Amino acid sequence: MQPVHIPPRADLPTLAAAAADCQGCDLAQLPGTRTVFGVGPAHSWLALVGEQPGDIEDRRGVPFVGPAGKLLDRALGEVGLDRAEVYTTNAVKHFRYRTGNGPRRIHQTPDLRHVTACRPWLSAELNLVRPAIVVILGATAGMSLLGPSFRVTKMRGRLLPGPAGSGAQLLATLHPSAVLRADPARRDEVYAGFVNDLRIAVAARPTMDPSASVDA
User: Fold this and answer.
1) Where are the transmembrane segments (predicted)?
2) Average pLDDT over residues 104-129
3) Structural domains in the chain?
4) What is the DSSP string of 131-180?
5) 173's torsion region: left (phi>0), alpha (psi -120 to 50) or beta?
6) Pairing label, strands 169-173, 133-137
7) pLDDT score recorded for residue 214
8) How far is the C-alpha of 143 from the C-alpha of 175, rounded, in Å?
């Protein structure tokens, strides 16, 4: 493995190009995987941080384009947001998987070492986008931004202070895939809770979009 090198004074496309060559952890050595970087406006009041790309995201090179992404789009629509308005990324940029009996690649949760190796990329993204609110989607994203003691069940639905000097607030909720995995008898209830968490983020939206003054 090689140390992660963040290019100085890089914009988002430069960061994405540099991350494509990252060898900071063993996930870069998995066959058939690529770095899946964040997408969205260069400056947005809201950033969504998930766990890692899944099989479909890895194949397409874009975050949240599989079933969890479709559910996320639906939930964003219910709170009056469009995906194009927000910056979407993952705490870990490569797909960690194991193979089964067939060709299907089976998701495995990233380890702390993977989260740690990718944290400089996530920090660099958020430093450029400068969101006022960062929505943490699930435990891995929470571990990246708030440390290994993070627990979704204890911290979800509350606005929390972001990293020192960032000016951002953090709001934790479930990962959309957790809604899809919920017991069918409770799935509507779990989805409604997820939407309500997003409403809290929308209610905390700054009166002036921080991106409005970037080029002033």
Assistant:
1) none
2) 94
3) 14-204 (3.40.470.10)
4) -SEEEEESHHHHHHHH-TT--HHHHBTSEEE-STTS--EEEEE--HHHHH
5) beta
6) parallel
7) 45
8) 13
